[in-house]
């Protein structure tokens, strides 16, 4: 299959224009930029001879009749997103579906999942499509400003169609940037993914005593930020005994109430997220999180509340699909590819519950992602596209 690299790069640059901010994008799920991007993608799918179909979550499919291989990723972004995270996989899928139809190649459908970046939860669009999360539960999820997913998706109600039956697809392959340093530092061009780590994500709230920052003696304070600080210090210490160099954990979002410089914060709500390839270790870490939070609360006279836990289990890539990618990588970049795990989450994790999945990576310059500076050499983008096209032809 011969892909059209110029057409692919032009579409990728055009998608970047939706929500463009500096070198990155601001295109969170259901934002005007996200919805405009999805409508543009739908027209490009139609131009390619595919039938565009939105489902109730705003997942956008470009369908061919009959059984087909599904390629794609997501086109929503983090609040400060890179231009390639997700977008690359969607546009690569579109180019391969187009080229395949033009050349009488294999049947390929395309998807752009919604809210992979978790404005509302962890990979919610593909989680609902794959049955991991019910639409009713998803509708109750709120973003950090309190907007409910059920309200946000009303902006796409006019195009929301029926559930797309997963049984029409023979498998799913997602092309994605690595979002880490391994390929770039190794001078490699292609990564063939072996497995995707699991994740746990929850909100924790410490309650203390709001008070005057000038008149309240330190010994009498119940400062909710101090509870977070103590929790974090003890957690780092205790995690050291159970983690590996690949285990990661992050407190990425903290809301202090009332968040004023002359007021001792009475409440602190923060996101607690951890990831690892090993389920028992994820479970062990959850116990340490809960026990440590309770101990800090009891010792300091704080209340502690745990939000609902969102979690996805680790998943291994399908051997046949992965094998096709490895052969294609060997042909295209004989000494410039490797197999590797994914420390980032992807829609492939959810889709793997329904069908065989595989992933192919291209390098992220300096390993940067989830940042406006995220970028990849164009030659590497095209190399990844060619490897995916070659693997699809061989399936
Ligand atoms: O967080 C992740 O791993 C994904 O990029 N949303
Ligand atoms: Mn992504
Ligand atoms: Mn991402
Ligand atoms: Mn005052």
Automatic annotation (TrEMBL):
Alphabetically ordered keywords of this record: Hydrolase, Manganese, Metal-binding, Zinc
Cofactor note: Binds 2 Zn(2+) ions per subunit.
Binding site for Zn(2+) 2: 85, 117, 370
The protein's name in its UniProt record: N-carbamoyl-L-amino acid hydrolase
GO function terms (MF aspect): hydrolase activity, acting on carbon-nitrogen (but not peptide) bonds, in linear amidines; metal ion binding; N-carbamoyl-L-amino-acid hydrolase activity
Pfam families per the UniProt record, alphabetical: Peptidase_M20
InterPro entries noted in UniProt: Amidase_Cbmase, Bact_exopeptidase_dim_dom, Peptidase_M20
Oligomer and partners: Homodimer.
Entry superkingdom: Bacteria
EC class name: hydrolase
Family label: Belongs to the peptidase M20 family.
Gene: amaB_1
Residues involved in Zn(2+) 1 binding: 74, 85, 176
The protein's Enzyme Commission number: 3.5.1.87
Alphabetized PANTHER family for the sequence: ALLANTOATE DEIMINASE-RELATED
